Amino acid sequence: MPSAKGLVPEHHPRFIGTYWGAVSTTFCAEIVESADAYLFAGPIFNDYSSVGYSLLLKREKAVIVQPDRVVVGNGPAFGCILMTEFLDALAKRLDRNTTAYDNYRRIFIPDREPPNGQPDEPLRVNILFKHIKELLSGDTAIIAETGDSWFNCQKLRLPEGCGYEFQMQYGSIGWSVGATLGYAQAAKDKRVISCIGDGSFQMTAQDVSTMLRCGQKSIIFLINNGGYTIEVEIHDGPYNVIKNWDYTGLIDAIHNSDGNCWTKKVRTEEELIEAIATATGAKKDCLCFIEIIVHKDDTSKELLEWGSRVSAANSRPPNPQ
To answer: Thiamine pyrophosphate enzyme TPP-binding domain: which residues (predicted)?
Structure first.
């Protein structure tokens, strides 16, 4: 499930993707939801992880394993059973069955890459993430901010050793800036690549100051589309439009010629390619801040679907009192 991305090795030959209901990895939900039985280890079924409580699951076919209890179907529930002990004992009792994976291979069609942009065409978000995918290796880690980066980063296939952090249970906008600081400070053997929306960045931008003081070398992609895009897709209104900043100018001011920092504002695919080449070449030992200018309505199809379903599940008329 989405919050567990990065915990299961995605180079494993049987890995088929992320189960997230209607916004799952292509062909993954169909296999999970059509199975004779399913085992969930440590799930949290809230409105966000269940896409507005729209998962096509049957409780009577589920075994749900929590850290210290197991629930089989609609009951019974067995307490005082540790997840680690249960899974270890279950693995010894199972017979190999490849039916689900065989079905997956029958229906699987590889994803196509988005078409390249035309010269001087405004940059699209799907083009941005096509190039971010090429940056990933065992020496990198991805931080996905709350928002459309949730969905775009979920689609990135992680190479062996690539780190991944993603926080969705509270939908904490601005979380990723501090997470980038902390991850880079702890995992000095990896270069952190962060995908952060402009609204989220405005919440916690000051943490960049500590990144510079600590001499970190992360790459921050600041996606500037002029508002809280994920909130727009749940419930639109003028409160989702934010005051635009000169984000590269802000980082230059925070840098203040004291530290190791490089900034770039990008509007086209050609400029993006040049910026990434610089960030991984001449400026590989710098904190690199790349501001990506995109259209305010440029979102992933997964966010459009997710936002509509969460809105339908959570919307209610105002209290007349």
So the answer is: 167-291
Residue located via tokens 């991850």 = 183
Q: Which residues contact 210 (CB under 8 A, 6 or more apart)?
A: 181
Q: Is the pLDDT of residue 320 over 70?
A: no
The predicted-structure confidence for 268-286, as pLDDT tens digits, reads as follows: 999 999 999 999 999 999 9
Asked if CATH classification 3.40.50.970 holds for the domain at 125-306, the reply, yes or no, is yes
Q: Which residues of the chain does CATH 3.40.50.1220 include? A: 21-107
Phi-psi domain of 293 (left: phi exceeds 0; alpha: psi -120 through 50; beta: other): beta
Distance between first and last Cα of the chain: 39
Least confident of 137-146, 180-189, 234-243: 234-243
Instruction: Report helix, strand and coil shares of the chain as percent, to nearest 5.
Output: 40, 15, 45
CATH class of the domain whose range is 21-107? alpha beta
